[in-house]
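Researcher: I'm preparing a figure for a lab meeting and need a structural model of a single chain. I don't have an experimental structure, so a prediction will have to do for now. The sequence is pasted below. Please return the structure as tokens so I can convert it later.
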Amino acid sequence: MSSQKFHCIPQGNPLYYVGYIMLKKNHLKLVFGLLLGAVFMYFAFRKVNFAQMWAALKSANYWYLGLALVFLFFSHWIRAVRWRYLIAPIQKVKTKHLFSALMIGYMANTFTPAHLGEFLRAYVLGRKSKIKASSVFGTIVTERIIDIFTLLFLMALTIVVFPFPDWVTKSGYATFAGVVILLVLLIVMKRNRDASLRLVNKLLKPLPKKISSKVDGLFHSFFDGVVGLKNWRHYVITAVLSLLIWAGYGAVLYMSFYAFDFVSQYNLPWTATLVVLVITTISVIVPSSPGYVGTYHWLCQLSLGLFAVPKSEALSFAFVLHGINFIPILIVGLIIASVEGVSLSKAPPPSLAEENGTLSEEGPGNGSGH
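Model: Understood. Here is the structure written out token by token.
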């Protein structure tokens, strides 16, 4: 496999080798995800009336989607603000730089498997802030744990007013168990850093010396990125910001309900927003195709069916909602990547192979990362 396959990360950086290994190992996961997406897309289209789908798309009031976009980017900006608090113990970083890295990473996630866009996100910020990208990646892991706990909190809140199907509740339990295990593992490894690194070194022995030494460096920097917040106020602020992020995502859904007139036509209660939000988010957690195509559509259709929304109209809604959540991010991410000089089509020159190296950039003389 050529370095062209994972060219956005400089070859001298530890995360390059992890990304290389992950991408190599994720070929099967990508094929599995595509097949899984196709299966769920089949389920979504089964017994659907295409005339009703088209009628729902034609009759929608797309002005509401403008408001949905406002709430979407509001949520992402708040996410960048929260990230500023998570990374503050390492270094103070401007919110605009965090937002740019976030958009580029999310853009890459739309067409790469296994959230590999998070590696790119770490490097974009590493280039701007001069923080080791593997340390940045540690804060991204922390961020994801917070997101899952927030989602589980919303699920618990929703169960009080709406009885989820058993499979959703069991998925929540499984997710909770998984994230608790991950959190405990991170805490134990952080507190027993030397022992953890010795274990990592033993596991890396079968790998070539060049790769094992780079990955070992990654873990050192990663542990530097898994840090507590500066003070108790930051914990409170982070919790409030997390709720605001998901409230924004809920507002995107609610505006979309109004766009398709589901609120008045099917008497959707406010709890429908939480139910659809929780269930569709499962598509992000389970193995899936890039962009969650198929799983997202079927789960959205299924969740709306709990409120007696017909399959055909629900699927039209799912396609529009999926488009709102991904197409603007793809466009904005590509624009920011172009402005930042991040090339998604060229391999980095050898001179960029440094621990805090920059990404591949357009044109000569741009290796400084500014």
